[in-house]
Each structure stands twice: as C-alpha cells, then as structure tokens.
## 1
Amino acid sequence: MSKSKSHDQAVLAVCAEQPDGVLQSALTADGGPLGDLVEMQERIDVINALLARKRLAMFKQGTPPQFVVKLAQPHENKAKGLSAEEALVHQVIRGAGNTGVWTRDLKVKTNLAQPQVTKILKALEGRGLIKSVKNVNNPSRKLYMLEELEPSREITGGAWYTDQQLDREFIEVLRETCYKLVERSESPHASLGDVAEFINSKGVARVPLREEDIGTIMQTLIADGRIEMIEPEAEGAPERYRPAVLALPEATAFTSVPCGVCPVSDQCTEGGQISPQTCVYFTAWLDDSDAPSRPAALDRRALLLAGGAALAATGRAAAAASAPPAATWDGWSSPGLAAPDDPDLPKFFRTPSGVKVQELTPGSGPAAAPGDAVLVDYVLRRINGYFIYSTVEGVSFQPRDVPTGPVRLRLGGGEVVAGLEEALVGLRPGGKRRVLVPAELGYVSNVLQPAMPTFATKRQLANHASEPLIFEVELLRVLPGGKAA
C-alpha cells in the first residue's frame, strides 16, 4: 500500500469515529493521524486532496470560527458537475454554516449580478443542495444554508417559536410546569439544573432546552412574584428556587373595583357627567356582588358610592364645578365612561333571562327579528371596563393591525352569543344599546359569533369568557330573512 493511501485511510478512519466532525487542527497536529509527516504543508495537502475528491467535507463552526472536517455524505456528491458560478455560490452558503446567508450578502461575496444569483439559488435548491429558511427576527428576509443543516436558534427562535410565531401557549405551559416543580421541591429546593433535567426528561419541548432557556422562564416567575431565588450556601453551589414567601396578590381590593382600573377616574366627580352614581361599570359591579342579603348589598352600595365620590373629589374641588365633557369617538364611549348625561335615558333594565340592557339610541325603521341577518358595530369589554375588542377604529388602545369594520350576524340560529342576540332582537337601524351579558349567556362555546379576528384577541377573550361581559352595540342594517348585504 502506498504511503499516501495509508495517510488517506488514517484520516478517514478518524473522521468515521467522530461523525459530528473533527477539528482540522487535530488532524494536522503532531499526535494526529498525519503526525509522521514532518512538514505541516504535507499534512494540509493530504486534507485538501481528500476534500477535492469529495471524500471529506469542511465547515466553519463556533466563535471564534474553527474549521471542522467530517466524512462527506452521499448526497454531497450532488455537488459534482456544478458550474464555476454555482460552485462559488454553494461554497459561500456552506461557509455560512447553520446561520445561513442572505441573498444580498451572496451578491457581495460572489460579485455576481442579482438575477444570476437568483437563478443559481433556484438551481441549487432543485438539486437538493440548499434550502431557504425564514428568520424570526425578520420574516421577510430569506436565508440560505445547506440542506442537511439544522438552523441555529438565533434563526428559528429555538423552542419558543412554532412556524415562525411566538408560541405563547407553550411558554405558559412551561411556566406552570416549572412553578409546580419548585412548589413541590423541599430541602433541598430545586436548582436550575434540576428543573432543566426534569423538563427535558419529560419531553415537554420539541427540542432540548438549555439551562439558560429555563433560566429565562424562571426569571419571569420571579418577576411575577411567584418564586424567589435562594442564595447559595457555599461558593460554587448552585442557586436554588422556592415559592415566594411574600407572593404578590393577583388582585387587591382596589383593583377589583372598576374605579381602580378606570382610565378616566381623574375626571370622576360627584354629580358630574362622569360620576359614581351614573357609571354603568360601577353599577354592574355592585349588582353582581355576592352579598348575602339585599339590605347588606344596599348598605355596601351606599358606602362605596359615598367613598367613591369622596375619593374622586379629593384634590379636585375646583374641577368639580366644571367637569370636562366625556371623551368619545364618534359617539362610542371610552372605557369606564358613564352613559350620556341625559335625564331621560333609562337605566339598565333586566330581561327575564338575566341580561341587562340600556337603551342609548332608539333607532328607526324595521326592528330586527329572529331569522334576520344584521350588520352591527360593537365594542366588547370586561365588566370592570377593561377593553377587549372593537369593530370601530380608534376606540381605546387597540393596535392598528387588528382588523376592524362591521360584522354580519344571523339571529335565531344559535350562532350568536345568546345575551347579545337577546338585546339585538327588537333593535332598529341606527339604534345603540349597552348590554351586560352574564357568563352563562355569553361565550359558552368558542364557535359563537361575533368571533375575535386575531389570535391575540381570541386569547384575551378566552381568558375572560367565564366572566360577565359588556357589549356596546349599534345596529347598522337589518337584512330580512338573512339576505346577503
């Protein structure tokens, strides 16, 4: 056997034992398979000859970058027969590793025209040599890498992303799992390594999670006041976690009252347009109190009304004499505002089923009836005035990318939220009603209309579907018999 062939086989044998790759420096070191060659250039020539014959493949990995050599896979033979330009583009993409390379960078590094680069990329993809991936930080930018490589976490977002979207549900499940583990661990309390090992052993994530990944989750639990970190007892000992001794309450007495979260509480004055006596959210909250008896509830109402008026009046004696008008957007009230200051406007009336309705504008024309289709605008809020969604653009702090516009509902078919449908029946075009819908007549099914248009609004509604909700709805048009608009 010739000396050159023995060197080739020695290198290939070392690479076969380490399929993930061998550092080039290890192959050319004095103690490596080419150590009997005196000159370093001779050792490098052996590696280059194997690379040229497609027996080996070389990649640049790590920070700082190092050259890694491994056995060429059968599919790498697909690179044979490439033109000079195609081989150049393929080489640049291979050098980018699992972080990929952008087409603009390819153009700069290869000095090829953009149409030529695009044509070559399509040819390489067709031969199964490269693939395109999206960067979660810039979804509109395509990155190219070798077909067999797994994109780096910086590109895919790691375990936190699914199909280029932040997987909020998975993150919440992981948070609860970590918290339960910390809650159950006692003497010694769970360390970061313990939590990471448990999570990975249970296969909770699609990919193995690193300790720093779990550490990020633990920091969110600390920020929420659910757990706390225990300082290490000795130098070098791991940090451990336990449930927070003084956990933050989910709600306080003040935040459970609509006044505590009302964005216009500074405009609330006794006898003013915005006042405790006329606030529909305050009234609904009082009516839903679980007081043991009506006299007790009346006492509570009187006490809170007086307290709310006193609180609103504090420091605003001058403003009370001339309260500013309520802020509205084309007649739609902002969160927490009372009904228009009209002495003839009726208070809430309760239907036999328990729905509370307030007539804001009567409307005119044919009244909506079961079997009709109606076109409506609406604003949906929680009972404390917190905003959920609006079809009317500009109401509250709804993001601009959330779709708006009237929605079409069919009455009488069981497709619409029961409490809202009850308020729509009898309403005339141009009429507007504010409706307090009990939970049992609300979104008892996730297929009921009106449906939320985005994942974020659907998630927000799902979190509060078991609560009473407030619709402020305007009937725009009645379509008798459900005819198309």
## 2
Amino acid sequence: MDNRMYPDHIKPLDGLYGFAVSSSNNYQGTLFRLALQRHVRDSSLGDAWDIRRLREDLIKPFEDRAQEFLLFTSIRKIKIYHRTSRETVCTRTISSELTEEMTVAEFKTKVFDVIKCSQGQMAKTKTQHWHVVSTLTSCDLEVSQSLIKYRLRSPITLEIAARTDIKHDAKKERRPVFKFFSSLPLKSSHLPVHISAPFILSDDRRQVRLDNLDPAAANYNRWLLSTAVPPLYMFLLSDLLEHSHDNISWWPGSAREEDELSQLVTSSFYKNLKTSQQRVFLPSYKDEPTPLISADIVLFSTLNDNDPLNQVFRLLKPPLVLLSPQLVGRAHDAGLTKLTPAYLSDLIRRSSINTAAHLQFKELNRLLEFLGQDADNLLGLHLLPGTGK
C-alpha cells in the first residue's frame, strides 16, 4: 500500500512491531488491520465482527495450532502479543529447537523440540518432540509438462513429521489430530503423522484436488500420495527404530476409518511393503533385537502380557513381530508371513530346545491348544513333560 495515498489507513499501525509510516524501507512482516466493533448490531455491511468473536474464532484457534506452522517452514519462533490502552504484552511464545540433523542416502532427518511458553500469573511450559524426515524427488516429464500453468518447483520436497512424546491408540475416542500440509496445514487425515507435499490445491487453498475438473492436477496429487510419499513413510518407520523408538504407534492403517487421501497413502504403503528393503520391523522376543525387513519376519496379533504363549515365544525366539489384528490383516493381505500352527510346529521340530521341559502346564496347554487347530501339526512332536526330542 502506498502510504502517501492512504495515510489514514495505516497511521494507527505506526510504531507497532518496528513498523514506521515514514520509513522508505520494506517492512519485514505482515500486519493486519481489522475493522472491528465493540458491539455488533444489524449492519448493512454484512457479517460484522466484534472483539470477542475475533478472539474466539480467529486468535484462539491460531494459538492452539501455532506449533503446526513451525514443522515444515523456516519459521523458528512465533510470539503472540496482547495490546491494551497502556502497553503491549507478549502472552505466549512458540519456538523450535533443533537437537539432531542427519542424512541417510536420499533421506534427511531432523529431530527437534517445539516449546510452548505462556506468560503471566499462570505461566507454564509445554514441550513436544518431533521427528521429521524429508526427501527430494521429481515427477515424470509427461506429468510436469501437463502442469506448466501451476509453476511447480523441481525437485519436489516431501516431508513427514511424527510426534514422539505421545503414543497413539486407535481405540481411543480422542486421538491426536494429524493433517496434510502444503508447507502450511490443510485438512485432517486418518494417519498418525503429518504429511507435507506441494499439492495442487482448490481455489480456496484448503482442499487437495482430486476432482475431475482438472484431471492433470488430480493425477499429480494421486501420484504424490500413492507413489512419492510411501517410500518416505517406510524410511520414517525405519529411522524411528534407529532412534530407539518403538514404531508401532506410527504405522498407517490402524484408524477405524479412512479419508480418500489417507487411503491412497495406506494402500500403496502395504502394496509395496513386501518388497521394501527398509528395516521397519523389530522382533518382539529376541534378546537383542535388530530391525528386519519384511522377508525375514513373521507376524502375529498382539498378546496380553499374561498370555502363556509369551513364554513359548521367549523360549523359541522366533522373528515374531506383534501388531494389532488390523495391521496384521493388512500386511498379510499384502503377502507377508503370518504365524500359523504349521509354522510354529515346524519351528519346534527344528529347535534344539526340549520345549516341553521348559514349559509349565498352563503354557504347554496353551501351546497344544494353538497347535491343535490342525491335528497334523501335533504329529511327531514330543510335547509331553518328561519326553525328549
């Protein structure tokens, strides 16, 4: 705005946060001046806002989600001020502090804390821990040429952020809300991570286009979600294990329902899981477990701590990975091996351990119950106490 043409519009901002009407230099920031009313009455100007509505519908939601603006941008600190007739006071600060940064092949990892500090009599500090992975990729020449009007950057930057200071349980009614981003937050997803990609958006900049109004844009967005994102997601799960995190909380596909965008990511993830060389699985019963690839593990549904089968597995130490029944089903449908009575029977036969001699009655009984789903699995096994192999 030319301050010579509209001096009265910006005069109230003079002196705020380093802004000077008389300065000839560009102001490094953006100030919004909103025409508010102390008391809203019927107005011919349409929907009028008062200070209370501004605070409840605009300022407070931004304060609650301000940390999201630090995840995939170069912004490192956000300060929120409250201005009275006498002074301007900083009421909250949200900042990020990098704790680790590394590169593995084409993938980059950043580990940082997001610190939220409130000021005043009720001053308190909350810290979130974030694990963010990123990569650069390029789309097919044919695709990029069909999207020249959108001026897409190349190479494309993809990022995924996992919050590591909380555990996610799909069974809980209130689970953390994660979103799709195009650097800044867009719509909520049914994935346990944030995903940022240079999506082509609707005119209101809020929706990822998958409609038929522009097939080229929809196909590009589908390519991002189903082809570009899944390899980075698999690296995230592998990298979380390398940083001593149990990665089960961040597996896709555990939500009760899925939106279209989340479904594109999840379906492609499991479709490519069997052939992936990323070490995304941590065996549950090894003394010193090391991450394994899909071809080297066996899946089984999570057991209760007091299930007698736990002792059987501790004794035999199979490369067994425990996941929720829903995730086991998805992975098994994608071609991964699931624990069956036949597999366990063969494992006992090949083991040098006298299984029966090391099990108590309830453990042996539970083992026989599991194997007995097919009587052929019991033939030739020496599972009576006191017998050898």
## 3
Amino acid sequence: MRCESMKKFCYFGLLRNFLKSSSLIEKYPDLVIPHGMMIDEILTRFEYLYSIERLVCDQQSRRYLLVGTCIILLINGPILARTSMCTLVKNVLSLLDCKNPMSVHILVEFLLEELGKLKADSKLNLLNLSEGLVRITKVAMPISICLLWAIVGRIMKMEITMHRYREFEELALSLGWKPEYSLCQMNAEQREDLDLMLRSINHLIKFLLLDNNDELQEFGYPNHFFQMRGIDLKSMVTWATFIKTDVSAPFKCNAKICSRIREMLGMLERVKREVSMLPEIVEEKPKGFPPLPVDTFSALDD
C-alpha cells in the first residue's frame, strides 16, 4: 500500500492542460512542460516566473500562477512537500493579498473555477490542498478556511455565494441536532463524504476556535468568527454523539469515522473549557403604546 504522504492528487497532464488554457503560456513560452520533465525542473521554471511577476503587477497572471502552484502542490503530494515546493508556495502567496476578505474571495473563486475546468476540484483535492497550504505557511490560512467551508457547503448543500469566514451558527443549523441518515442507510459515497466533512469541520474548529488568530483579528476580522454560541456547541455535540453511537455497525469505514468523531468531540470539549461563548441574542418583543387611561366620566358628558 502506498504511503499516504507520497500520494499524488493531480498529474502532470492536468498541469499541461491548465498552462495551455491560461494566458501564462503566451507570456512565458518556457513554461511548456515536455513529457518526462522532473518536478524539480518545473519548480525552477515557476520560481523564474515568480521572480518576473514580482516586478510586474499583473493580478490576473498572479492568480494563474497561484492555480499552477496549487496543481504542482497536489502533484508533489501536499502532506510532505519538498523544500523547493514550500519556497514556491510562500513566494507566490507573497504576491497576493491573502488577508482582505474580498481579495480572498476573488482568489478562492478563481482557484475553484480553474480547478473545476480541469475536473480537479474534487472534495478530496480541495481538502488536501487546504491542509497542504496551511501546513506550509499560516499566510494561507484565510484561503484554507474558505476551501474548507466550500467542502462543507458542497456536502451539506449550503448556499455559498461568497467565499469568506462564516459563523459556526450556520454550520450548526445545517447539521441539525441529529444526522439525517444513519450509517447503515449510507452508501459508500455518502460515507466517504461524511469522512471528508468531519475532517473539514475538525480543521475549522481547530483553526478558528483553538489556534491563535490574533493577527487576523488585529487586521479587522470580527471576533464572532473565532467564537461559538453555547446553543450551537450543544447542537454540534449532540449531532456528533449520534454519529459516535451509530459507528458500532460493522462497516469497514467505521474505525476512520469513529476516530474523526472522537477528535471532534474532544475539540468541542476544549472549546467549552477554553473559548468564551458568544452571547445569545434574545429578541425583545416590540414595545407597544402605553395603555390608554380608562374613561370613567363619559357617561356624565350629557
């Protein structure tokens, strides 16, 4: 069995197709990748492209450069990326605004569109890309968070029109208090989606609630993205507990799902202990006009 850290999630053919369809190949003919070229040589060519783009403020070319770099990261295997791969990712991200919410939305939307054209935007690819980017540099955190929300949104059929940080209330409402199906009712694809969703949710809990986000908060990201309401915490714990109870059925995937659920429940317990809860806003009933005084003298008018 192949080691997970060496697994590839994209292939060179996809990179060639992307470069042919992008404007990069017209500007930089040296990016043509012949068959048999080693990944180190490809990285060298992309580093050369980075050294040019840092002097030329062409945002469209920089976005294409990001997509190409992400494809190479998936080819390289995002779990144990080589040093030259890490250097390229950091350099390319340094050319882009990875903090401003609107800029991040544009980057993520462009990345998803281009990967979609190549049919390389599977939920597994997006998850591994999210993990790989943030493992290399925390600068990629906003992009990674938006990719995780995109994965959860696809699986939960959430309507996501803006790729941005979201409140956990939205996630809790989508999950509900009880899973829609039990494991015994799920087919293999649904169980795989459940595993991918649990991995994504666990990353969101860790990155947003348990990691240090001072830099993003200082930049202007609202505090409520890094907190949770007590009712939403209770709801997610209840939902996860139903899954935990359900994994006793004899499915091969159960050990994997059980591990994810235990991790989720453990992190939610940490959130309960370590993170201040958002206040739950109780809507006040609108105040009406004060009651009119009782007219006790009308009968004496005549």
## 4
Amino acid sequence: QRLESLYLGQFALATEDIQNIGELPNLIELTLKYCGKSAEGLAEAYAAIGKQFPNLRKLYLTSKTGVETDILVMEGLAPCRNLRQVTLNCSWPRRVTSTAIQRLAPLWPQLEELAFDATNPSWGHSRTHIKILQDLALAWSETLDMISLGFDAGGKLPRPSAAVKGRFKKLNRIWVDYSNLPKNRIFPVAEFIASLCTKTPRMSAPDSEEIQDNWDAVEERVARIIHSRET
C-alpha cells in the first residue's frame, strides 16, 4: 500500500493485468507497456490506471496497438489531479486538436511535461500542426516545462492574439520528433514560437543532422527575437 514507484516496462500488459495489480493509492510514478490491440482497449487501460492510482504524478506508457490513437484515450486519467508528467508512445499518434487540449487541461492543472510520440516514427505518420502550441500555452502557461510532439510546420501560421503572447512562462524544451522543417520555414516558425514565450526553449530533434540543424536555427532566431524585446 505504501509503494510509490512501479516499473513494469519489461512486461507487455493487457487491461486485465493492470486491473489485477489492485489499488495503490500512494503510487506516484508508473512505467508500463500495454499490449492490447485496439484504441478502445487502451482507453480502458487508462481508466483502470486512473481508478487504481489516483495520486500518480508521473506516467510513462508505451503502447503497440498498431492502430491510430487519439490523445483523448488519456481522459481516463481524470482522477489523477496531481499528474505532472504524462508520456504516451504509441504506434500511430493521431493529430492533436484544440478540442482535445481544452478537454484535457482541466484534468491536470499542474502538468509539467506532455509527450505524445510514435514508437517508430516515419514520414508517413500524421503530424500535429505547430499552431497547437497556442492551445498548450493557454492550457498550461504557468506549469508546462516540456512538450514532445511530431509537428507539421507548413502552411500559414496564425497571428497570436494578445491572450497568448508571452504566455509560456516556464517552457524549457520542445522535442520535435522527426519533424521535417524546410529552410524557408525557419523564420516564420521562429517568430511564431517567440511570440508565445518569455524565454527561449531548447529545440531538440532525434539523431538527424538535417532535421536538427534547421531546428537549431529556429532556436537561435527565437533567442534573438526575445533578446530584442528585452533591450
């Protein structure tokens, strides 16, 4: 009953396996691998986690269902009001929508890290448009420290309203997964990110020189813009 941390990443668990763990009200950190074959089953697994471990602060879950997965499968974690870090690595992450963030934000008011990534990223995976950063800034402006998503940085970027300008107070790092960024998108993307931040977040990509170089250029540009605002 006093267990605070549980690592089950070496086992592939079904929903009933999670339910059989029993209730651990003092559990703060949980790492596990889910082996179900449907998004509905994954949602049930999250509901079981929320019910059995309501005081979780850190949850790292890897799922290889092989199907497209919506971030809203995590709504079952509603009882975990103290959640600070949540990671879902899955086969096919679906694009994150503004509506999804608006539904999740009230559930975890103190969220510091949000990661929703593909277990085996490829160019064929759907990407969340980078404008979702506006919604994340509105949802967790005072707490969010790290974001990890696969981004689509193409197309027209919105002009941030007064409500979101400088909204991110603590954002330190953005993991961009395998998010390709053409050179002609560096400046508009940097200006968009800078408009949302009060300090420069570290832009991190996987081990790909081509991807990382352009995101490094974004970070440098963001730093210049923010510095110019302060002088």
